[in-house]
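Why Glycosyl transferase, group 1? Reviewers of the renewal asked for a concrete example.
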Amino acid sequence: MLSKSAASSTTYESDLAVPRFAHRPVEHREHVASDDLVAINSHVRPVRMVVFLETDNSVGGGFQQATNAALLAKRLPPELCTVTFVTTRRSAIEELRLSGIDARYLPVHRWQKLLARFHVMWRLLNPPPLLKKHVYFNWIDRSLRGMGADLVYFTGPSYLALVTAQFSYLFTVWDLAHRDEVDFPEVRSGGEFERREQIYQLALKKATGVVVDSEAGRDNVVRRYAVDRERVHVIPFSPAIGTQLPEHELNRPDRFIDIKEKYGLDCDYVYYPAQFWPHKNHVYLLRGLRSLEDRFGIRVGAVFSGRDFGNLAHVRSVAADLGLTDRIRFAGFVSDCEVTCLYRQAIALVMPTYFGPTNLPPYEAFQLRVPVLYSDLKNLRDQIGDAGLLIDLLNPGSMADALRKLIVDPDLKMLLVERGKQRIESLTDERRLSVLRTALEAFRARRMCWQTAPKMSPIGER
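Here is what the prediction returned.
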């Protein structure tokens, strides 16, 4: 990892000095001597980027994706960018370290969160400069300045992007589900819709760049929030680190867990790794299994892994009502090792979620050579293309039909596995890194236009 001292250097003024031939007439600049070109390049320093990680593994895919984004940033060439990693969750430090990310801990206390909200509301009022100086204290800008930051990369949809008044930033949008699927309580109740809307309305238009997972995600950001299309960068998700081990590692005896034996299953099963939110639509999967047995006499179980965010009791009650309790298992939070076994021993990944446009489990299934059944929704179907079977969320029977095809037709299974392999192999880190490099190169050219240390008033924002 790049040293923190490199990312925190405070040698500012000489970094952006004017090249010594800049005063020459335009017509002679094509004859610049080689020593002048060396002088030019010596003044093009790396961007100092601070990467924020604000979740821990309790959020599931969000943490995995933020970790993957940080690992990608770590691979940026040092001549372009030096990186400092920051986490606001003490609980994430050790797991990030095990993933290869040495992150500084920046505590965000409750009083700071309240101050941040007051800070944002105060700026929206656009008070006179004198009041701006004396009323609030920008603790996040002070911290970023202490780290020598030029640019901040928020690896998730962060409220802190609204707080910084001095630093440019890249802002990540995982989804706009609160606009796409407004019926679900997790995005409409308790002020959640308004909170998300405030973040996106204010943060996106001011962002140096917006990072999304797909072309559908880019179209949605541009359409919903009138963001310039060229400032929205598509960096596809990548599978969780634990699913990317080489085959010989996955096949080690000490990594093998017999899933049926562990969970007392007497039949084959499908797998669904998802937190228990209503939008994850576990109940559809249960209804699909009931239809599979009632129509075709095929008895299949399911293993659900993930934490409860308020909907687990409902899912359990539906399983009981459908007479499926004997073959449904709730694994809770499981290790990376067990996750790979859960995938590889399943008939298929079944993911009837309403939220997208991209989710990590289909990519993980492709990586582990497992067939995928996925929601047939406009913004989701492009993720798997012809590498999976699409299921109609209005008709659980379509899931039963797809599972039956997989079970009775081994050739179909092999075809989907091969297509999934090709699809995941096309989403290379080199492709992702190229997009991020291009965005940083454009920022660096602009960043050279002003002194490195933002001018701060002695009493105002620091």
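The radius of gyration is 25 Å. This is the kind of structural detail the renewal will allow us to pursue systematically.
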